[in-house]
Design goal:
This protein is mainly α and about 200 residues long. It contains 2 helices and 2 strands. It folds into 2 domains: about 110 residues; about 60 residues.
Length: about 200
C-alpha cells in the first residue's frame, strides 16, 4: 500500500515535472515567438516612425511650397491689380488724348478754313494791289507826260470855270429865294469848296 502511494506520488511528480517541462518549452517557444514578433513590431515601429518622419518632412515641404505659392499668387494678384489700374489709367489717358486729338482736328480744320479764307483774301488783295500798281503806273506815266499835264491843267481850269459858274448860279438862287436856308429841298445852298492840287512830275 505504501509502495503504491509512493509510486503514485513519484508518477505524479514525474507527470508534474513533464508537464512543467512541456509548459516551460511551450512558454519558451511562445516567448521566443513573442520576442520575434516584438522585434518585428519594433522594426516595423521604427520603419513607421521613419516613414512618419519622412512624411512629416514631405508635409512640411509641401506646406512650405504651398505657402510660397500662395505668397507668389498674392504677389501676382497684387501686380495684376496694379497693372489693371495702370491699364485703366492708360485707357483714360488714351480717351482724353483721343478727345484732345478730335478737338485739335476740329481746330485744325477751322484754322485750315480760316487759312483758305485768308489765302483768298490775300489773293484778292494782291490782285487789288496789282491793279492799284497798274493804275499808279498809268497815272505816273500820264502825269510825267507834258502833254497829259497840259490837258489835265486845261481840264482843271475848265472844272474850276464850271465850278465858279455853278457857284454864281447858286448865289443867284440864294439871293432870289433862299430865305436864309442852308439846306433847301434836300440840297445844300452854300457854295462847294473845291481844292485843286497839282503834283509836279518827278
Amino acid at each position: 500500500m505504501i509502495k503504491n502511494k509512493a509510486f503514485f506520488l513519484i508518477a505524479f511528480l514525474i507527470g508534474v515535472c513533464l508537464f512543467s517541462i512541456l509548459k516551460y518549452i511551450t512558454i519558451f517557444y511562445e516567448k521566443k515567438a513573442i520576442l520575434s514578433d516584438w522585434a518585428q513590431m519594433k522594426s516595423q515601429i521604427l520603419l513607421l516612425n521613419t516613414l512618419k518622419e519622412h512624411l512629416n518632412n514631405q508635409l512640411q515641404e509641401k506646406t512650405r511650397i504651398i505657402a510660397e505659392k500662395e505668397k507668389l499668387q498674392q504677389e501676382l494678384l497684387q501686380q495684376l491689380n496694379i497693372k489693371e489700374e495702370k491699364i485703366s489709367q492708360i485707357q483714360a489717358f488714351l480717351d482724353r488724348s483721343e478727345e484732345k486729338i478730335a478737338e485739335l482736328n476740329r481746330e485744325i480744320n477751322l484754322l485750315r478754313s480760316q487759312n483758305n479764307s485768308l489765302a483768298e483774301e490775300n489773293r484778292l488783295l494782291l490782285e487789288k494791289m496789282e491793279k492799284i500798281n497798274q493804275e499808279y503806273n498809268s497815272l505816273l506815266s500820264r502825269w510825267q507826260s507834258i502833254e497829259e499835264l497840259r490837258k489835265a491843267i486845261i481840264q482843271l481850269k475848265r472844272n474850276a470855270h464850271l465850278q465858279r459858274k455853278k457857284i454864281a448860279q447858286t448865289k443867284r438862287i440864294i439871293v432870289e429865294g433862299n430865305r436864309g436856308y442852308v439846306i433847301k429841298e434836300g440840297k445844300p445852298t452854300l457854295p462847294l469848296k473845291t481844292k485843286i492840287e497839282v503834283i509836279p512830275a518827278e
